[in-house]
Sequence to fold (228 residues):
Amino acid sequence: MNSLLSNLKININEKIYLKDPESSDLGKRIIENSILLIDEIGFDTFTFKKLGVKIGSNESSIYRYFESKHKLLIYLTSWYWTWLEYQLVFATNSIENKVDKLDHAITILTQTATLDSNFGHIDEIVLKQIVINEYSKSYLTKEVDNENKEGYFLIYKRLVTRLHDMILSIDSTYNFSFSLASTVIDGALHQHFLKDHFPTISDFKNTEMPTHFFKDLVFKTLNISTNE
Fold:
């Protein structure tokens, strides 16, 4: 898996950016430091001016890559979903047993992120925290329908569809496969958020992950047994 991922290029919808940040050292510094700065101060108070100070560059240079911080957030979350999709595909592609494949998929989609040495300028652990805390701000807007038509959320939807297909492969009669798939993916983010910020209403403490909860939810919903 690592040898395959070492040749991986994350492809993001070209309509999201003005200039591909992966095409230059400055662009990579913009991505690397925007992740760190958003995690430090939050997306609401994040500005290109503050990012420019952090990277030692003019604010105008950042606008050559992204027309707004909203587009930058969509880029970052799209990068995360693409990276997660590759993790899912490579981890499950060779698994023939459908239940085992679904089991592994839920693990990938709900576990805590780890650093990927294939992308030295991106801290996947911090990026996941941004997705947990800020992802909803990328689509809870008046422009969401137009941006959806432009394909801004295609990668996220494709990831949901992959899990949906695994669910249907086990029970083709189940009528709520998309709802169950999106509940696992979005619900995992929410449970991580509760664990970090509202621990008194979370069943998961410290470094615990919600993986077992979502496996329990899915397997009982589909009425399948496991060896656990």
